[in-house]
Structures are given as structure tokens and as C-alpha cells.
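Team,

Forwarding the record for the chain on the shared tracking sheet. I've put the sequence and predicted structure together so nobody has to dig through attachments.
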Amino acid sequence: MMRHHSPSPCGRGKGEGSPKTMTQITTETCRLYLITPPVFDPTRFADLLAAALDAGDVAAVQLRIKDADDTAWRRAIDALRPVTQSRGVAFLLNDRADLARKTGCDGAHVGQTDMPGRTARDVLGPDLTLGVTCHDSRDLAIQAGEDGADYVAFGAFFPSGTKQVTRLVDPDILRWWSELMELPCCAIGGITAENCGPLVHAGADFLAVVGSVWNHPDGPAAGVRTLNAAIAEASR
């Protein structure tokens, strides 16, 4: 089936020299999307992040720090944003669309209980990247596109070490979306090099990962290399 235009405008341009939006950086090959671990020291973590990004292809990094005040957010942004953007990788904030533009980030990702997608788009403006969590809902995904999202995220597909998962999502939702829409889709939830193949086959544009990179026994760089190798193998 041919892929039709997404229900929202996509490919919003960005400033000269800035990373492209998630819509623009999508290729025919599935790509990694790194999410920061639940707890870390920003200054020390910057070196681990640099090593991970230098190890292989990464489309974006999402800074996720729960229950933190603005001072902690800004400290983490100041430490990690230059590391990410200097390598041409998009740097996004989890939930904090209000801080993204103020601090020079490339966009934000919001959940269903955080900020409505349309509100987040208004806060970010037309040029920054917006991602929206849609769980296993086709209706929420379509609504996200109408609200101006640059990508939609489905999951969790596997048990996760960072969030309580009460219901696993069938990869068929990725196939349905990728066959109908041009708006990119991101798979999230317990994804590893060993289980990512079906998600790649189903049409995921991005694989959002946490533990499989940051908790890799040989370090984050090895985690990125291993996952990229698994994506390449599944893409053949």
C-alpha cells in the first residue's frame, strides 16, 4: 500500500546549522533514539554520552529527568546539549516543551498525561520537533498528527526496566502506521538488539532505547554498535 501524506504538515525547517527535525532526518533505515537513564550526574554522564554518539548512528537524544526542578533541568541541558548537537544529533526534552526553546534545544516529547500535543506545538512554535506518546492507540496517533507532531511513539513492546508496563503492544500497529502515513513512528519499551528485529520489519523509523545502551556490559559505545548491527541485519 502506498504511504499517504501524514495528517499534519511535516518537514518544518530549522535554523542554519541546526539538526534537522525528526521528520526530515528519517531515512529508509530504522535509526536509534537514545533516552537518558533514570538517574545520572550530568557532568560525568556527558563523557558517556559522547562515547555512545561517537560509536555509531544515532538520530536523537531525549533528556528525561523526572521530578526535577528547573535548576536541575538547566544543569543537565547545559552539560548534554552541546555534546549532542555538536555531533548533528537532535536534542529533545521529555515533557518540558516550555524549556526547549528557551535553552536552545531541538524540541520536546510529551506523554498523554503531560501536555496536550496541540499545546506543546504552540509552545514550541512551528520549527522545533514534537513527539507524542500514543501507547497502542491508533486514534491517539492520528490526533497527534493533527496536533502537529513530527513523530508518534508506540509502546511498550516488551517489559521495560524504566517504566511499569501493564500491557504490551502488538508490532502490527507499526506496520499499519508506516503503510498509511508518512509521519515517522518510534517504537519504545524494553527494546534490545535481540528483540528489535520484528519492530524493524514492521516499519519502525526509530527505536527508543535506554537500558540496552547505558547498561550494556561493555559500555554505552558497545551498546550503540550492537544495536546498529542488529538494525542493519534486520533491514536486509
